[in-house]
Structures are given as structure tokens and as C-alpha cells.
């Protein structure tokens, strides 16, 4: 049993190492610019490869706030060999909107196709986001387990079941339950992206914003909010000035600017549905600290009391091996 478990962990370590070190990356769709080919919340695979017109690629695009990742389709090339890109749902190319042509140095990867369709996992963006957060710690734990097995393999095999108490088993069960709860909450979150274009015009509205001024823009996000959950929105590239929500729609007021130069400016929006196990002010303060802090604390607010109550009611000091060994001796 232990050996088979460690074999699974070894395969998991190999998969994690492959995604980290061998040019395979998992991305998440954060806007509707590639509808209907890629929809918000989907996950997709990126690999290294030669680009051709018609390929979907992820590339780095320079903005006022630094560099952002964009996933669009290659629709042409320039005389210098750079690429012209456009989102399938956009009326014009990125370059017509003011973005520079995409060079090979800025390309992160290409989305492979199977049977003419891009390799996409629908609605798996939340899991992809979680895996990117825990990839390195998880790889470390897997390698630690494999190292322990290598050291223990030289010891004599025990003839009895190891001394494991009910309390230790409960700790493992509720730890796994907490991790599963966090994974479930993250998976129902959603990522979106809004692109504003900075302009010299003083009366800019909608997707246009005047340079060197702070303006407010409203964004409507459609998402299902599970029962007994708070909805929080985090923004990058802008400040969240306010948000109102119901069961299906969240209206977010963004404070954008001041932008220093004309051109595209991306605002990323992350929406999370956090269980209502903590008072909203507490959950909001933790979410401002980090979204994962609010999610983990809210899930732990359920699992930890159940764990403590179980330790109080069950004989936590009794070894499970007593029962298993007694049954083995009776045969």
C-alpha cells in the first residue's frame, strides 16, 4: 500500500516537474476576447513550437504598469518577421489598437491543436490557478516523501501495523478535508480582464480613458454565486472603488489611472466566492491581505471545530493497530 502510494506520488512529481521544467505550461482564460474559441474560466495548455498564421499564442505585452500576458491568434506577420495578433471576438488587431507587433522573444508558448481544435479544458481555470500557487510546495512534499521511502527501505519490514492512533488518523482526514474544501472554493472563482485604451481626448468614455487622469468605470461580471457565500473582487491595474452583487451579476466600480501614456492598459479582475463561515468584515480583511488567506480561513472555520469535537468524543489515544492486529491474530 505504501509503495503503491509512493509510486503515485512519484508520477505526480514527474508531472509537476514536466510542467515546470520541460516547456509545458497551463494557462487560464481571463477575458472574452477569444470567444467562442476560448471562454472566460477555461484552462489551456502551452508548449514551445514554431508559430504559423492561425495559431493561438500567449505573449508578453508591455503596458504602463509593466508586462501582462495576452492570449490571441496570430493573423499575420510584418516585414520584419514580427507577428500581428487579434482576439477572435475583437473587431481589429492588437496592433491597430496601439500595441506593438509581437516578436519571438515575447512569445511564451503556442496552444497545441488536436483535430484542428485547441487543447482546452473548459471551466478549469480555477484549478489551474490553484496548481500554479502550490506547484513548488507540492513538488517539495512529494520529493520529501520519496526521500523518506528511500531511507526507510533499508530498515526491516515490520510484522505489525504501525502505531497509528485515532487522533493521528483524524488529523490526516481533516487536513485532507480542508485542502479539498480550499480546492473547491478556488475552482468556482473566475478571472476576467478588461482592456482600456489611454487617449489624449478629454471627453473619453467607455473603454477609452484620458491620460494622466483618474476616472471611474463600471464593469458587469456574470457568475453564479453559491448559496451562503460572500463575493469578493480583486483587481490588478486598477483600484476597486465599490461592488454590488446578486446571485448572478456583480457590478464593479473601478478607479482607473492616472495612465502616463497612450495605448492599451489591462485591468485584471479576480472574483472569489468565499463561504460565509466568518463575519464579513473579517473575511474582507483577510481577502485584502490575500485571497487565499480568506478562502483557507473560511474553510478551516468549518473543519477545525469538527476536528476538535471529534477529538473530544472519540478515543483519540487508542491505536488503530490494536484492532487490526487483533483481527490478524484471530485468523
TrEMBL record:
Coiled-coil positions: none
Enzyme Commission no: 3.4.21.89
TM segment ranges: 134-152, 164-190, 289-309
GO BP terms in the entry: signal peptide processing
Major place of residence: endoplasmic reticulum
Annotated InterPro entries: LexA/Signal_pep-like_sf, Pept_S26A_signal_pept_1_Ser-AS, Peptidase_S26, Peptidase_S26B
UniProt cross-references to PROSITE patterns, sorted A to Z: SPASE_I_1 (PS00501)
Keywords per UniProt: Endoplasmic reticulum, Hydrolase, Membrane, Protease, Signal-anchor, Transmembrane, Transmembrane helix
Location(s) in or outside the cell: Endoplasmic reticulum membrane
Domain Peptidase S26: 7-77
Job of this protein: Catalytic component of the signal peptidase complex (SPC) which catalyzes the cleavage of N-terminal signal sequences from nascent proteins as they are translocated into the lumen of the endoplasmic reticulum. Specifically cleaves N-terminal signal peptides that contain a hydrophobic alpha-helix (h-region) shorter than 18-20 amino acids.
Entries under NCBIfam families matching the protein: sigpep_I_arch (TIGR02228)
Protein name: Signal peptidase I
UniProt source species: Salinirubellus salinus
Higher taxonomy: Archaea, Methanobacteriati, Methanobacteriota, Stenosarchaea group, Halobacteria
Amino acid at each position: 500500500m505504501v509503495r503503491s502510494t509512493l509510486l503515485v506520488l512519484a508520477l505526480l512529481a514527474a508531472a509537476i516537474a514536466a510542467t515546470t521544467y520541460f516547456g509545458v505550461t497551463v494557462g487560464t482564460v481571463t477575458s472574452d476576447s477569444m470567444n467562442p474559441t476560448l471562454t472566460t474560466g477555461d484552462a489551456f495548455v502551452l508548449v514551445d513550437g514554431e508559430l504559423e498564421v492561425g495559431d493561438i499564442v500567449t505573449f508578453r505585452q508591455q503596458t504602463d504598469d509593466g508586462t501582462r500576458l495576452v492570449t490571441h491568434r496570430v493573423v499575420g506577420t510584418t516585414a520584419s518577421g514580427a507577428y500581428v495578433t487579434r482576439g477572435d471576438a475583437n473587431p481589429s488587431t492588437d496592433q491597430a489598437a496601439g500595441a506593438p507587433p509581437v516578436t519571438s522573444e515575447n512569445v511564451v508558448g503556442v496552444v497545441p491543436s488536436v483535430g484542428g481544435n485547441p487543447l482546452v479544458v473548459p471551466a478549469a481555470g480555477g484549478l489551474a490557478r490553484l496548481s500554479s500557487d502550490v506547484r513548488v510546495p507540492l513538488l517539495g512534499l512529494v520529493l520529501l516523501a520519496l526521500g523518506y521511502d528511500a531511507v526507510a527501505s533499508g530498515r526491516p519490514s515490520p510484522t505489525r501495523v504501525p502505531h497509528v492512533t485515532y487522533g493521528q488518523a483524524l488529523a490526516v482526514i481533516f487536513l485532507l478535508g480542508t485542502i479539498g474544501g480550499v480546492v473547491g472554493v478556488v475552482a468556482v472563482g473566475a478571472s476576467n480582464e478588461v482592456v482600456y485604451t489611454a487617449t489624449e481626448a478629454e471627453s473619453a468614455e467607455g473603454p477609452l480613458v484620458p491620460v494622466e487622469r483618474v476616472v471611474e468605470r463600471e464593469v458587469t461580471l456574470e457568475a453564479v454565486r453559491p448559496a451562503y457565500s460572500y463575493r469578493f473582487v480583486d483587481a490588478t491595474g486598477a483600484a476597486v472603488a465599490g461592488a454590488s452583487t446578486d446571485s448572478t451579476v456583480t457590478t464593479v466600480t473601478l478607479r482607473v489611472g492616472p495612465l502616463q501614456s497612450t495605448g492599451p492598459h489591462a485591468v485584471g479582475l479576480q472574483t472569489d466566492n468565499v463561504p460565509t463561515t466568518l463575519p464579513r468584515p473579517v473575511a474582507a480583511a483577510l481577502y485584502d491581505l490575500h485571497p487565499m488567506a480568506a478562502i483557507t480561513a473560511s474553510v478551516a472555520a468549518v473543519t477545525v471545530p469538527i476536528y476538535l469535537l471529534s477529538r473530544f468524543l472519540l478515543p483519540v489515544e487508542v491505536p488503530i493497530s490494536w484492532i487490526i492486529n487483533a483481527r490478524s491474530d484471530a485468523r
